[in-house]
Amino acid sequence: MYDISTRRRALALVARGHSLNSVSKRTGISRAAIRSWQSRLEPLPRMCPPDPEPPADERAYAYLLGLYLGDGCVSSHRRSGYYLRIACADAWPGLLQQCRDAITQVRPGVGVYTVQKQGCAMVTSYSRSWPHLFPQHGPGRKHERRIALEPWQQEIVDAYPWEFIRGLIHSDGCRITNWTTRVVGGERKRYEYPRYFFTNLSEDIVRLFTDTLDQVHVEWKANGRNISIARKPSVALMDAHVGPKH
């Protein structure tokens, strides 16, 4: 009951990253019909050639790169495109929105949607650009393969180190407050000690994090792949440029 052009328009929306539900609402076509077309209709022609253009917003890219290295992946789509997926915990709705904003700033015009999982949401976007923008993608887990930045990526991180650090902390780090009590003048008082932690199974990603901390003069200590930032001046720097998740 639908002509081929209608089917192609619906599938093109899906290919751009829109969910089946949103395409169904937009076009009035049932999700079941769209799903069946995905398996039955001949492959769509490429909408455009691969796009190796640099990120539209380098500051946003530095942040998004940190998120990707911590909790992201790039996977191929059977119709010749790629999905970028970044996991954001439900406990931090502000982080989820910052992730969505960064994606649209890095590649304006792409669709961004979320897929709810248990305890987290997968912020997802479809584009042929993602393998070019995140050349660290590959088969297997990140900590099981070498992770190194391309020269152009390192230039962006050098220009926006705090955004890169913030992305890594927002993905695999946290800010906590330790406390203790002391008796001062016969009165017991409570003292609080905020600090930052970062943990990643990949030695390469940990090294990228600590190298960037060195660049901005933040002191840190390592216990295996666990990085602690506890000295008061360094915590103050982190508070000024990173801050707690929200």
Task: Note down, in words, how this protein is organized.
- The chain folds into 3 domains: 4-40; 58-141, Homing endonucleases (Endonuclease I-creI), CATH 3.10.28.10; 168-241, Roll (Endonuclease I-creI).
- A hairpin with a 5-residue loop joins strand 1 (72-76) and strand 2 (82-89).
- With 246 residues, the protein is of the alpha+beta class.
- The chain contains 10 helices and 8 strands.
- Strands 1-2-4-3 form a 4-stranded antiparallel β-sheet. Strands 5-6-8-7 form a 4-stranded antiparallel β-sheet.
- Helix content is 43%, strand content 24%.
- It is elongated.
Q: Which key phrases capture this entry?
A:
Endonuclease I-creI, 246 residues, 4-stranded antiparallel β-sheet, alpha+beta, 3 domains
Strand percentage, roughly?
15-25%
> What structural category characterises the helix and strand content?
alpha+beta
* Amino-to-carboxy terminus distance: 48 Å
Range of helix content: 40-55%
The CATH superfamily of the largest domain appears as Homing endonucleases
Strand order of the largest sheet: 1-2-4-3
**Backbone CA Rg:** 22 Å
